[in-house]
Design a protein that fits this description.
heterodimer, A: alpha+beta, Flavocytochrome C3, Chain A, domain 1, Methane Monooxygenase Hydroxylase, Chain G, domain 1, five-stranded parallel sheet, 14% strand, globular, B: alpha+beta, Ubiquitin-like (UB roll), Fumarate Reductase Iron-sulfur Protein, Chain B, domain 2, 2 domains, five-stranded mixed sheet, two-stranded antiparallel sheet, 9 helices, binds flavin-adenine dinucleotide, binds iron/sulfur cluster, binds FE2/S2 (inorganic) cluster
C-alpha cells in the first residue's frame, strides 16, 4: 500500500462540509434497520455516536470494558468544552476557533477537518443543554464561559470542575434511552481483542467477556473504534488505569494506518510524583491557570531550602518570586499552551529551581486571586479541584500554593482517518481521542471534548451513511465464516500463550519499566541518540515480557492480570512505533520537542520544509519494521508562522 | 506532606471465587507502605506480592483513581469508601491508618448487587433503572440554541449538585434496607430542576421507581445513612423531590 487519499472535498474551506454533506449518500430508513454497526468504546465519542446512530435507525452494538458506559475516561475531564458561540461578544467566530486550533496544533492538522470541527461546535452546546447538562450559568440565566490556554477569547463552557462528567452523563443518558428501547445492545465488561476483515472490509470484532472469560464473535456492516487514547504507554499518566491502546492497535495490525503516534501531550498542571508506589498522576485542571500564578524562587538558595523542607513558600518574599511564564511570555502569561508551559517548568526544575523534595515541582498560587476576588469566588469556581488536591497532597491550597509538575495526559496521534473518519480499512472508522485527526501536534484545552462529541453527534452519523449506502445488499454478517474462525483462534492462541509463560514477574513490572524508558527518552524532550536507545530497550522489554511474565488464575473467570497483560503487550509494540515516529520527525513541533531543532533562545523550532506531513505507519508483520507513508499537509487559508506567545 | 512509613499492617479481605460459591475472609500481612500512598495503591502492592508468591491477586473494581468514575467500591472497616468523609475509595490515603492496624475490606453487600468475584460486584441494576427513564427524550439535532431558555443560577447550581452522583452504589451498600432511593432521587432531581427535564419529570419518577422496586432494592425508611456515606454529598432532600414527582404521576394516573 502507499499513502492513501484523505478525501478532502473540493471548494473553499468554509463551504467544504456543507457541500460534502449535500453530496454524500444517505441510507433509507427501511435499509438502516437492516444494517448493523459495532461501536467499540462508549466514552463521549462512542456514546454520542452509538446513540445518534440508533436514533437514526441503525442496529447498534456497543462495547466498553468498564461495568457501565458512564465510567469511560471522558468522565474525568474537568475544565470545559470549547465552542465558537461568541456569547461573550469578544469577536469569537468559527474562523477564530478554527485558526486558534490550527495554530495551537502547531500547523500539523488538516485545515478542512479543523474547520468542520469549529463549524459544528455550537450545535454541541445546544445538544447538551437539551439533554439536561447543567452548564454553569450567569445570574441572568445565560450560559457562562471561561478562558483556556492558548487563546484570547472566552469560549469554554463548563459545569464546575466536572465538565466531562456532565457531558458524558448527557451522552450516556441518550445511550440509555436507546438501550431501553432495544435499539442498542450494550456489552459492558467486554474487551475487544481483534477486528475481523472479510474481503478487505471490516465486518466485526472478537471480544472477551471479562466476567466469564468467554471469547466471542460479533458481526456488523461497519465497525467504529472509539476507544480513547494511549497515554498509559508511559505507565504514569493522568489517564484512568484501564485506558489502553489495544483496540486501535488491533486495528493497526489489521491494516489501519497509525498516524503521528509521537504526538503526546504533557499537561503542565498535575500533582507531582511522590514516590515509587504511585499508580497514576492526577491532573489539576488547566482552568486553574485562569486564576493561579505559576512561580519558582528567583534565588537558587531559596530553592535548595525548599527542597530540604527548611522553609515554606510563604517565607519567600514577593520580589524573590520568579513568575517565569509571565516573564518569558508577557502577552499570554500563565495561559500559554500546554506544551510551552510544560517545557518551561522542566527548564526551571532542570536548572535547580524546583520546589519540593524531588526538585520536580513548581508552585501554582491562588493567593493573588483570593486577594482580588475573595475566597468565595475561588471556591465556587474550583472547590472540587481544591478538595481533590487536599485529599491527595494533604495540604490546603487556600492557604499555600499547590505544587504541580507536567505529566502525560493526552495523545494527539492515533488511528489515521480520512475526512469521513474512515480508517485505511474500508468500513472501519475511528472517532474521538482514538483518531489522529484534529489537534495536530498539540491539543488546546477544552478541545478534546468538543472533538469527541463533534465526531459522535454530528460528523460520523452523516459520513458513515456514504459507505453503508453501498452495503445494503449485504445480509447479516455470518460469524461462522472462515475469517471469523481464524481471528478467534488467533485471539485464543495469544491468550493461551500469555497464560502458559508462567514466568516470574507480574505484569506491572513490565509496564513500569516500559513507562520509564518512554518518559526518559520519548517524553518532554527527545534526541536521536536517546530515541535509538529507546527502540533497543523496548525490544528487550518485549522479549523479557514474552518469556517471563507471570499471570496467575484461569482464563475462564475474572482475571485482571490477564487483562493488564494483553494491554501491556500492546503498549510495548505501540511504544516502538511511537519512538520510530519521533525519530523520523526531525523537527520540534507542538508536544514533540527535538533537542536538535531549537531557536538560539531555546524555544522549539518547527521546520515546515521537512515537517508539514501526517505520518501513516503501516504494519508489516510481527517483529518486522513498519513502513511510514506521508500525507502532505497543504495550507490554503492559514499562513504558517512560528508560534509565538510572547 | 509529611510522609511516614507504615509497618505490620494486616489486610483482612473478603475472598469469593464467584457468585455461586461462598466466600470467606483471608488475612495478608503487608509492610513498608508510605502514608502518601493511596489505599488502592496499597492493594496494588499487596497484589504484586501475591502474584510473586504464586497466589491469586485480589479482584477489585477501579478505574479513574481520582474520585469521579464511580468504579471503586470497597467497604473498609465497616464504612463504604472507608474512614474519611466525602471521598471515594480511590481517594482514601494510607495516612488514615496506623502501624499494626488490621484493615477489613468487604465488597458492597446488597441483594441487588451480587458479588462477581472477591470485592467486585455487579451493579447492572443501576443501569437498568436509568435505562427505564433517566434521560430527557430528545434526539440528536433539531434542538434550540443553548441560550434560548434562560436557566437561573440557583436552578443550574441545584441541578449540578444532584447531577454530581457518580453511581458508585455506596448509598445502597450503606442502607440497612439496601434502598436505591438516594441514587434514583439524584437523577430525578437533576432533571426536574431544569426546564428541559421538567416536561417528563413525573413520568420519569414513576418508571424509575417501578424499575427500582422490580429489581429488588429495599424501601427507604429515612435513616439518612446513605447521605452520610455518599462521596459526593448528595442530599436526602432529593428524596423529597422524588416523592413529590412520584406523587404527581400517581395523581395523574
Ligand atoms: C484528567 C483529564 C482531564 C481532561 N480534561 C479535559 C477538558 O477539560 N477538556 C477537554 O476537552 N478534554 C479534556 N481531557 C481529554 C478528554 O477527556 C479525552 O480526550 C476524551 O474524553 C476522550 O474521549 P473518548 O470518547 O475518545 O475516549 P474515552 O472517554 O477514553 O472512552 C474510551 C472508551 O473505550 C472503551 N474501550 C477502550 N478499549 C476498549 C476495548 N479494547 N474494548 C472495548 N472497549 C474499549 C472504554 O471502555 C471507554 O468506553 C481530559 C483528559 C483527562 C485524562
Ligand atoms: S447517591 Fe452518592 S452514594 Fe449513591 S450512587 Fe450516587 S454518588 Fe454514590
Ligand atoms: S476509581 Fe474512579 S472513582 Fe474511584
Amino acid at each position: 500500500m502507499t499513502a492513501i487519499n484523505s478525501k478532502i472535498p473540493e471548494g473553499s474551506l468554509a463551504e467544504k462540509w456543507t457541500k460534502h454533506k449535500a453530496k454524500i449518500k444517505v441510507v433509507s430508513p427501511a435499509n438502516k434497520r437492516k444494517l448493523d454497526i459495532i461501536v467499540v468504546g462508549t466514552g463521549l465519542a462512542g456514546a454520542s455516536a452509538a446513540a445518534s446512530l440508533a436514533e437514526m435507525g441503525y442496529n447498534v452494538s456497543a462495547f466498553c470494558y468498564q461495568d457501565s458506559a458512564r465510567r469511560a475516561h471522558s468522565i474525568a475531564a474537568q475544565g470545559g468544552i470549547n465552542a465558537s458561540k461568541n456569547y461573550q461578544n469578544d469577536n469569537d467566530s468559527v474562523h477564530r476557533l478554527f485558526y486558534d486550533t490550527v495554530k495551537g496544533g502547531d500547523y500539523r492538522a488538516r485545515e478542512a477537518n479543523v474547520h468542520r470541527l469549529a463549524e459544528v461546535s455550537g450545535s454541541i452546546i445546544d445538544q447538551c443543554v437539551a439533554q439536561g447538562v447543567p452548564f454553569a450559568r450567569e445570574y441572568g440565566g445565560n450560559l457562562s464561559n471561561r478562558s483556556f490556554g492558548g487563546v484570547l477569547v472566552s469560549r469554554t463552557f463548563y459545569a464546575r470542575g466536572q465538565t466531562g462528567q456532565q457531558l458524558l452523563i448527557g451522552a450516556y443518558s441518550a445511550l440509555n434511552r436507546q438501550i431501553g428501547k432495544g435499539a442498542i445492545k450494550m456489552y459492558e465488561r467486554h474487551e475487544m481483542l481483534d477486528i475481523v476483515k472479510i474481503d478487505g472490509k471490516a465486518r466485526g470484532i472478537i471480544a472477551r467477556d471479562m466476567v466469564t472469560g468467554e471469547v466471542k464473535k460479533y458481526g456488523a456492516h461497519a465497525v467504529v473504534i472509539a476507544s480513547g487514547g494511549y497515554g498509559n504507554a508511559f505507565f504514569l499518566s493522568t489517564n484512568a488505569m484501564g485506558c489502553n491502546g489495544g483496540a486501535a492497535w488491533q486495528a493497526y495490525k489489521k491494516g489501519a494506518f497509525m498516524s503521528n503516534p509521537c504526538y503526546v501531550q504533557i499537561h503542565p498542571t498535575c500533582i507531582p510524583v511522590h514516590g515509587d508506589q504511585q499508580s497514576k498522576l492526577t491532573l489539576m485542571s488547566e482552568s486553574l491557570r485562569n486564576d493561579g500564578r505559576i512561580w519558582v524562587p528567583k534565588k537558587k538558595e531559596d530553592a535548595e531550602k525548599l527542597q530540604k523542607g527548611e522553609i515554606g513558600p510563604n517565607d519567600i518574599a514577593e520580589e524573590d518570586r520568579d513568575f517565569y511564564l509571565e516573564r518569558r511570555y508577557p502577552s499570554y502569561g500563565n495561559l500559554v499552551p500546554r506544551d510551552v508551559a510544560s517545557r518551561a517548568a522542566k527548564e526551571r526544575c532542570d536548572a535547580g529551581f524546583g520546589v519540593n523534595n524531588t526538585g520536580l515541582a513548581v508552585y501554582l498560587d491562588f493567593k493573588y486571586s483570593i486577594e482580588r476576588l475573595g475566597k468565595d469566588v475561588i471556591e465556587a469556581r474550583y472547590g472540587n479541584l481544591f478538595q481533590m488536591y487536599e485529599k491527595i497532597a494533604d495540604s490546603d491550597p487556600y492557604t499555600g500554593p499547590m505544587q504541580i509538575y507536567p505529566a502525560i495526559h493526552y495523545t494527539m496521534g492515533g488511528t489515521w482517518v480520512d475526512y469521513n473518519l474512515m480508517t485505511s480499512v474500508p468500513g472501519l472508522y475511528a472517532i474521538g481521542e482514538a483518531n489522529f485527526s484534529d489537534h495536530g501536534a498539540n491539543r488546546l484545552g477544552a478541545s478534546a471534548l468538543m472533538q469527541g462529541l463533534a465526531d459522535g453527534y454530528f460528523v460520523l452519523p452523516y459520513t458513515i451513511g456514504d459507505y453503508l449506502a453501498d452495503e445494503i445488499q449485504i445480509p447479516k454478517i455470518d460469524v461462522n465464516s472462515p475469517e471469523f474462525e481464524k481471528s478467534i483462534s488467533a485471539v485464543q492462541a495469544r491468550l493461551d500463550k500469555m497464560m502458559s509463560i508462567k514466568g516470574t514477574k507480574p505484569v506491572d513490572y513490565f509496564h513500569k519499566k516500559l513507562g520509564l524508558v518512554m518518559w526518559d527518552y520519548v517524553g518532554m524532550s527527545r534526541n536521536e541518540a536517546g530515541l535509538k536507545k529507546a527502540i533497543a530497550l523496548i525490544a528487550d522489554i518485549k522479549k523479557e515480557f514474552w518469556s517471563d511474565v507471570r499471570i496467575p488464575g484461569d482464563q475462564g473467570e475474572v482475571n485482571q492480570e490477564l487483562e493488564k497483560a494483553g494491554r501491556v503487550a500492546d503498549f510495548i509494540e505501540l511504544a516502538d512505533v511511537m519512538t520510530r515516529d519521533a525519530l523520523n520527525r526531525n523537527e520540534s513541533c507542538g508536544g514533540h520537542f527535538r533537542e536538535e531543532s531549537v531557536t538560539p533562545d531555546g524555544e522549539a523550532l518547527r521546520n515546515d520544509e521537512i515537517g508539514a506531513y501526517v505520518s501513516q505507519w503501516e504494519f508489516q508483520g510481527e517483529d518486522k519494521e513498519p513502513i511510514m507513508h506521508k500525507e502532505d499537509l497543504k495550507f490554503e487559508v492559514v499562513e504558517l508562522t512560528q508560534r509565538s506567545y510572547k | 506532606m509529611s510522609e511516614k512509613i507504615l509497618n505490620n499492617l494486616k489486610i483482612k479481605v473478603w475472598r469469593q471465587k464467584n457468585a455461586q460459591t461462598k466466600g470467606q475472609f483471608e488475612t495478608y500481612p503487608i509492610d513498608n507502605i508510605s502514608t502518601d500512598t493511596s489505599f488502592l495503591e496499597m492493594l496494588d502492592i499487596l497484589n504484586y506480592q501475591l502474584v510473586e508468591e504464586g497466589k491469586d491477586p485480589i479482584v477489585f473494581d477501579h478505574d479513574c483513581r481520582e474520585g469521579i468514575c464511580g468504579t471503586c467500591s470497597l467497604f473498609i472497616n465497616g464504612r463504604a469508601h472507608g474512614p474519611d468523609d466525602d471521598i471515594t475509595t480511590c481517594q482514601l490515603h494510607m495516612r488514615k491508618f496506623k502501624n499494626d492496624e488490621t484493615i477489613t475490606i468487604e465488597p458492597w453487600r446488597a441483594k441487588s448487587f451480587p458479588v462477581i468475584k472477591d470485592l467486585m460486584v455487579d451493579r447492572t441494576a443501576f443501569e437498568k433503572i436509568l435505562q427505564s427513564g433517566g434521560f430527557v427524550s430528545v434526539n440528536t439535532g433539531g434542538v434550540p440554541d443553548g441560550n434560548a431558555i434562560p436557566i437561573g443560577y440557583d436552578d443550574a447550581e441545584a441541578a449540578m449538585d444532584a447531577a454530581s452522583c457518580i453511581g458508585c452504589g455506596a448509598c445502597v451498600a450503606t442502607c440497612k434496607n439496601s434502598s436505591a432511593m438516594l441514587f434514583v432521587s439524584a437523577k430525578v432531581s437533576h432533571l426536574a430542576r431544569l426546564p428541559q427535564g421538567q416536561v417528563e419529570a413525573a413520568r420519569r419518577a414513576k418508571s424509575m421507581v417501578a424499575k427500582m422496586d422490580e429489581l429488588g432494592f429495599g424501601n427507604c425508611s429515612n435513616t439518612g445513612a446513605c447521605e452520610v456515606e455518599c462521596p459526593k454529598g448528595i442530599s436526602i432532600t432529593n428524596i423529597a423531590t422524588l416523592n413529590r414527582e412520584y406523587l404527581k404521576a400517581k395523581i395523574a394516573d
